Here is the input.
Amino acid sequence: MSRLVIVSNRVVVPEPGKPPPPGGLAVAVHAALKDREGLWFGWSGKVDDGPNVEPVVAVRDKITYVVTDLSTADYQEYYNGFANRVLWPILHYRVDLAEFNRSDLTGYLRVNGLFADQLAKLLEPDDIIWVHDYHLIPLARELRQRGFNNPIGFFLHIPCPPPDLLFTIPRQEQSLGVLSHYDLVGFQTENDRANYGRYLAMSKATVSRDGLAYSVDGRVTRIGAFPVGIETREYAGLAVEAEDSPFAHEVRDSLSGRKLFLGVDRLDYSKGIIHRLEAFGHFLENEPEWSNRVTLLQITPKSREEIPEYHDMSRAVNELVGGLNGRLGEAAWTPVRYINRSYSRPALAGIFRQSAAALVTPLRDGMNLVAKEFVAAQNPDDPGVLILSQFAGAAAELDAALIVNPHETEGMAAAMKQALEMPLDERRDRHALMYASIEKYNIDWWAETFLAKLADTRRSFLIGQLRSLFN
Here is the structure.
């Protein structure tokens, strides 16, 4: 079996004897590498301006981890700059927040070249390469320029907006356009796939009869939708165990019999946290019978605090929480508990299981695995209700949730009331439908499906079979 080489922006090397770190990408990579030899390459998370910084190699189980540091300039231009101040906002439909600097694009391309140089020393002729997310879009082109003809796949974990927005990316032909150097490009939803297909067609690519393959300058790229999943059964078992943990009991006791609404999001303008808090305030003001009977726990680890937009958002959320609690709270009841720290997977699973509802209401999200984890964690005999944004990729699969428009405050508030008053039979029926979906389309299905499709797009297949699609 060919070796699988995974490349991602950030790689955390697990400590010996301990489970892999939590996180959607880490779980996904371990599912892809299950039962096969593999290498995982990426940034260590460290910034080092020392001369001749060499990659660090570590072997854990059957996975070889290779991590490299970035210089200060690389970190600022590649990561904080072009990746997170241009690509991230535009791909999340927020062109108004994009801030382009020519040096940042130069740094973005430079780091992808540096990664390619280091990978070139590690790759073998029969390796299958799978690159992840928006930080590394140009990597296949860099590897092709260095003579590598290996099968290379790419998966975009965040949304892909319509072509009109994609064309606003400055010099998009040097960043987004070079996805054509991959054999297979995967997206979270059919909508994302279709958006990128229309972008390619508007870029003068030749389209196959089935609309899933595109020829650009003699290179053929397939595109497809591969919704990422979770370890459904494992997470359900984790939640059962966590339900009786001291931490879960502590949270439950602190509620004093009140219903719990739960939000779990990284602090980011794409997550709709401000809209959610405003809707919760509207709900309490217009449904006074629920005053002192429900609490919103919003768990929001901070991120990217060096970027001004994130610092401004942190201040705005703090002011909004303070205003809501001051206006609506009582001496013995705080309507909103706002926590700026992360919790372990078992701790979150225990909180999910005792929540009356999860508020998963991003303004735009590639998939949102919190929604799927919440469903997996529920007690099927007495499940909580998922309130889910129509703009999360998960909404395409979890349509038995209460689907809301996060921009509509009154509609969000109405969904909160509906969740609290929903009959048990309806909660069970909705949960059963959603659990069946996430059990079938779990993380193993995602990895196996993508890799099987990538195997079909090897160079010999492209030359011998795909050519006929364009004739």
Observations:
- Residues 308-328 form the longest helix (21 residues).
- The chain is about 40% helix and 20% strand.
